[in-house]
């Protein structure tokens, strides 16, 4: 059930845009930890390749759904597949094509660094700032539930500004999990 990924060329002149195309991808740790056939494989297309309906796939995808719906698993699975592909390993997918990724930025989970005097909100914003400052068009950014520890209005504004920056400035490949319906509407 594993395949060898195809690494696509992505010259620095911008003639080719970064992309990830995973068909029937699976999370290798979840699959092996629970030894179950209940894991439902999924497809992911980020970047300029054409989708089944003839449209160009987006560089950023907003993931929404109920808690325990698989959003975080999808984020982590994408990163693991990208890393495995780039080190030359087989990947848990039917097929996988991607351009080289220069860096993966993550903003996942909720934790503070109380001994350093850093709240959960501070840690989240520091991780987000690192991604916004460092991401290039060849980077992969995954963010999950940005803005815990502040008001709904503030966290929606932070999430919206972050998405806008990732799309317009960084122009990187991004997966952004959210429950903010106003962000999805935009």
Textual characterization of the structure:
Helix 3 packs parallel to helix 4. The chain is globular and about 45 Å long. The mean pLDDT is 88. With 186 residues, the protein is an alpha/beta fold. The protein has helices spanning 28-34, 71-86, 120-134, 152-170, 181-185, and strands at 3-4, 6-7, 20-25, 42-46, 60-63, 90-91, 95-98, 104-107, 140-144, 173-177.
In short:
The protein has 186 residues and is an alpha/beta fold. It has 5 helices and 10 strands.
Salient structural properties:
186 residues; globular; four-stranded parallel β-sheet
The fraction of residues assigned to DSSP E strands is 15-25%
The average pLDDT value, as a whole number, equals: 88
**Principal-axis shape:** globular
**Major pleated sheet:** 4 strands, mixed
Unreliable stretches: none
Run of helices and strands: EEEHEEHEEEHEHEH
Gyration radius (Cα, Å) is 17 Å
Distance between the termini: 38 Å
User: How many beta-strand segments?
Assistant: 10
| Structural class computed from helices and strand pairing | alpha/beta
| Distinct helical segment count | 5
Widest β-sheet, arrangement of strands: 2-7-3-4
Fraction of helical residues: 25-40%
């Amino acid at each position: 059930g594993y395949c060898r990924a195809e690494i696509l060329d992505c010259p620095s002149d911008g003639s080719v845009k970064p992309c990830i195309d995973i068909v029937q991808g699976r999370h290798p740790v979840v699959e092996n930890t629970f030894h179950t056939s209940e894991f439902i494989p999924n497809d992911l297309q980020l970047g300029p390749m054409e989708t089944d309906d003839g449209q160009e796939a987006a560089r950023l995808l907003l993931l929404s759904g109920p808690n325990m719906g698989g959003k975080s698993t999808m984020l982590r699975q994408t990163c693991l597949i990208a890393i495995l592909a780039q080190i030359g390993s087989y990947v848990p997918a039917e097929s996988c094509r991607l351009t080289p990724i220069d860096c993966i930025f993550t903003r996942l989970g909720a934790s503070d660094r109380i001994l350093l005097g850093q709240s959960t909100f501070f840690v989240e914003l520091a991780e987000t700032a690192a991604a916004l400052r460092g991401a290039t068009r060849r980077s992969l950014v995954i963010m999950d539930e940005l803005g815990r520890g502040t008001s709904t209005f503030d966290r929606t504004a932070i999430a919206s500004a972050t998405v806008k920056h990732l799309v317009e400035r960084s122009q990187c490949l991004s997966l952004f999990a959210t429950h903010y319906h106003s962000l999805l509407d935009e």
